[in-house]
Design a protein that fits this description.
Structural class: alpha/beta
Shape: flat
Order of helices and strands: HHHHEHEEHEHEEEHEHEHEHEEHEEEH
CATH class of the largest domain: Alpha Beta
């Protein structure tokens, strides 16, 4: 049998068919006849291993991006696939896989080191004060004006965009507290992908206790600006005005995936959980749902690098809009109208920052003396908590080991004073007196008998009852 050799090109008759096919209208019988002959030539090439002309075929996406695409292009490709996929029971497994893959790509995009030479200028600012607040917004919305109005720091403000090129810190003194206010450069659309030094700006926002989204109410694009800012911050793992779901998740070495729930699940199923964990190559884990959550919230739990932070939307320059628009904005949740030029709502602005930060002032009282009203302890709900244990740790870390009980005066107790333990929650302007354990070895009357880590009440309760 003669050996089949690889043809150098199309035979003459087939080359004529190639030229003739371009002039034949589509759909006719003659066109189909020529197409059949061209198909036979392609099959012959496949048998012979031809390296002639390659048929260009469009890659099928189905949520799977080619390996030559960049991370940003893969993210956009998966977003388009999610947008055009119908949501029903048959497609939920596919959507869970796409969302998990999208979260992994966004995390990889943030962790990718910058290519190039030496390190550039960053926005690393030392934490000063009791809390940190970050101003985030588009250029020329009034962030520098807010910093100059409420702090002693003067930030340059001009009529052109990108006046601020680095992070400028300031300190707000309010109710015996020091609140650090950061004026960050304006970000643009696509900041989550690294455009306009957006990663540095958002990196500082992840370290803040409160995020102020500043938009221009007089430009007519305030709602569009707010939507873009929330989308950019959500893409980098910042969850604004949300709380983590009450779901227990633990990865194991063996045993498979065990899913249980103490409530009715409506937004997620056991199959969705297994599909998400399979996408992360997790084959053994224990998941306990104490409340219902969505697939995206469960993906955030598996990722483990999400930042939950309070957010206040500040509509600046309200003196350039109508009174009806001001009333509509002020009725929205988590929104505040402000005008630094006309000095409108400046006092409410500071009170809102205090409320969203959850700051608590606690005054200490030594035994037999008056409370110290000049230097209070500042406890924050987001950093360390507002319990008696948090107050002890802020005073000294070794105070927990010698803690016996505490006496509290204020709004957090039913009667004043009240004896409380480490888990008691403190309210604003409470007075606390901490009593340590007595370990005086020289005085037999004051020496405590029993284990050192137990109080006198615990030792007394553990004694054997009297014989009757």
């Amino acid at each position: 049998m003669p050996e089949l050799r690889e043809p150098d090109g199309l035979p003459g008759e087939h080359r004529e068919d190639e030229q003739r096919a371009q002039a034949i209208p589509h759909g006719t019988l003659e066109y189909h006849a020529v197409a059949c002959r061209r198909g036979a030539v392609r099959e012959l090439r496949a048998i012979c291993g031809s390296r002639g002309r390659r048929a260009r075929s469009r890659p099928r996406s189905h949520g799977i991006a080619p390996a030559t695409m960049t991370t940003v292009e893969k993210i956009r490709d998966i977003e388009k696939e999610i947008a055009r996929t119908q949501v029903n029971k048959a497609t939920m497994s596919h959507l869970c896989s796409l969302r998990a893959r999208l979260a992994k790509l966004r995390t990889a995009l943030l962790d990718t080191p910058k290519a190039g030479g030496g390190a550039g200028e960053g926005f690393d600012v030392e934490k000063v004060g009791d809390a940190r607040v970050a101003l985030i917004g588009f250029p020329s919305v009034g962030k520098s004006t807010i910093l100059s109005t409420f702090t002693t720091t003067k930030s340059e403000a001009a009529s052109y965009e990108f006046t601020t090129l680095t992070c400028i810190p300031g300190v707000i003194h309010h109710k015996d507290c020091k609140i650090q206010l950061l004026d960050l450069p304006g970000i643009i659309e696509g900041a989550s992908e690294g455009k306009g030094r957006g990663r540095q700006v958002i990196g500082v926002a992840r370290s803040a206790d409160l995020v102020l989204l500043v938009v221009d109410a007089g430009s007519g694009k305030a709602e569009r600006q707010r939507e873009l800012l929330e989308r950019e911050l959500h893409a980098v793992g910042l969850r604004l005005n949300e709380r983590p779901p009450n779901v227990y998740y633990k990865r194991k070495a063996t045993g498979g995936v065990m899913v249980s729930a103490t409530c009715k699940l409506e937004n997620i199923t056991e199959k969705d959980v297994q599909q998400v964990l399979h996408e992360y190559r997790i084959h053994s884990a224990e998941v306990l749902f104490r409340e219902d959550c969505t697939v995206d919230q469960f993906i955030d739990l598996v990722e483990g690098n999400r930042k939950y932070v309070r957010c206040l939307n500040v509509y600046n320059k309200v003196d350039m809009t109508s009174i009806e628009e001001v009333g509509r904005i002020s009725r929205q949740p988590d929104c505040l109208v402000l005008s630094c030029q006309m000095k409108l709502n400046c006092d409410i602005f500071l009170d809102k920052i205090w409320e969203y930060l959850g700051l608590v002032r606690v005054y200490t009282k030594p035994r037999g003396k008056k409370p110290d009203w000049d230097d209070p302890l500042i406890l924050t709900d987001g950093r360390h908590g507002t319990t008696v244990e948090s107050a002890c740790r802020q005073l000294h870390r070794s105070l927990i080991d010698t803690f016996d009980y505490a006496m509290v005066w204020g709004a957090s107790v039913k009667h004043a004073p009240q004896r409380v333990g480490l888990s008691h929650g403190l309210a604003d302007e409470d007075v606390i007196q901490i009593v340590k354990k007595r370990t005086m070895a020289g005085d037999p009357n004051n020496e405590k008998k029993g284990p050192a880590n137990q109080s006198r009440a615990q030792i007394k309760k553990a004694k054997k009852p009297l014989k009757t």
